[in-house]
Amino acid sequence: MAVIPVGTIPPNPTELLFSDRLHALIEDLRVHYDYVFIDCPPIEVVADSTIISKYADHTLFVIRAGILDLSMLPIIDEMYEKGQYPMMSLVLNGTVNPRNSYARRYGNPYSYGYGYGIGYAYATED
Predict the structure, then answer these.
(1) Is the distance from CB of 83 to CB of 91 less than 8 angstroms?
(2) pLDDT digits over 16-51, tens only?
(3) Which residue of 16, 53, 69, 113 is most buried, as measured by CB atoms within 10 A?
(4) Residue 59 β-bridge partners
(5) Residue closest to 46 by CA, chosen among 15, 75, 73, 74
(6) What separation, in Å, do the N-terminal and C-terminal C-alpha atoms of the chain show?
(7) Using CA atoms, how far apart are residues 92 and 89, in angstroms rounded to an integer?
(8) CA gap 104, 110 in Å, rounded
(9) How wide is the angle at C-alpha 19 spanned by C-alphas 31 and 56, nearest 5°?
(10) Could you give the angle at the alpha carbon of 97 between the alpha carbons of 93 and 98, nearest 5°?
(11) Tens-place pLDDT, residues 80-90
């Protein structure tokens, strides 16, 4: 594993992202590593994610539960539908484990069956 730190923010970061040097760096990293992760700022803040997406094989959007404004979900869905980011996936973090929640500890029988397909949550093979 190797990490390339961000270093000092240059006066022209967008220009650097369009440079041939970034393309050469990405291609060199692909030769030496199975996975290359590029951490970008949120998409609504700067254009970095959009520019860098042309080098990506897969895009992960990390969303923290309770922080994301839910009005953004249709915008994210539209980006997915249009294919703006390659192989776009969402990761939801910061959720509460229902087994450790107040309701579970005090006997509330209600729960949510999260899961998809056979073998997960409440799906059956029938």
Answers:
(1) no
(2) 889 899 899 999 999 999 999 998 888 877 888 889
(3) 53
(4) 88
(5) 15
(6) 45
(7) 10
(8) 8
(9) 45
(10) 135
(11) 999 999 999 99
